[in-house]
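The instructor's notes for this session suggest beginning with a concrete chain rather than abstract definitions. Hand out the sequence below and ask the class to guess, before any prediction is shown, which regions might be ordered.
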Amino acid sequence: MEPAENGLHVGLIMDGNGRWASARGLRRTEGHRRGADAVRRAVEAAPGLGVTTLTLYAFSADNWRRPAAEVSALMGLLESFLVRERAGCRRRGVRLALIGRRDRLSPALIRAIEETERATRGGARLYLRLAVDYSARSAILAAAGDLGPGEPCDERGFLRRVNRACHSDPDTPPVDLVIRTSGEQRLSDFLLFEAAYAELLFTDTLWPDFDGEDLRRAVEVFRRRDRRYGGLARDEGDRAEPTRADLRGSAPGSRRPTTRSSVPQSGVSVGRLTGVRPPAGAPAGPCRSFSRGPG
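After discussion, reveal the predicted structure:
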């Protein structure tokens, strides 16, 4: 199940709003408000970078555990964002949709979601998905539960079921690149099935500071990656397989030099994005790029 060839699907885990606010002596809600500005910057930059689908992790199913006042403020900001950005998205050709559960959202927020989805339905330049009350594991379980006994289903068919389970366009392609801000390095139940072969990038930049230039750097790093999907790298296809004599060549206890072909490769690549702004008072993280697991 390889991503679509036409345009990139980028997933963004927007992390660090609270820490951004705390570092400046502000309330956490101010960090969330500034985070909405960062959403606008990312949306404006994405089409020019070849991104045709952008999925933003706005509120996870586990975020209901946060204080009620903060949850209420987040939902209010989301409703305001949908109303405020509706006309601009329509004008710029952005189709906006919400993925995730809707049964726990307020009637006013559901109205704002549905009205924005209707108003922007014709957008063809960028498909913007906001993940709200979202859980990838729940979507996978719902898709699996929808299968009848003995009903055949291939990967593409199951991807369509996963998309439908979270109110997304069934034809939404797999994810090419997942970016997480604030220095955390985990997926947090985000697009687990869709990101099976995604490239992963982590940046120390806190979400309210993230802008179009940060997104450009991330896409640039992505385009330099060698995506193998379990196969060989482009420069490895013509290499001769090692002979038994090659494998016997080392004396007992000696170490053979490590070559690229002897290092296990992975379809998922993990790295740190350099050249971005670290949070105030923190040193920039080192550049690390490595692969893990079987090819």
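Then share the key points. The chain has one domain: 9-231+262-282. The longest helix spans residues 68-92.
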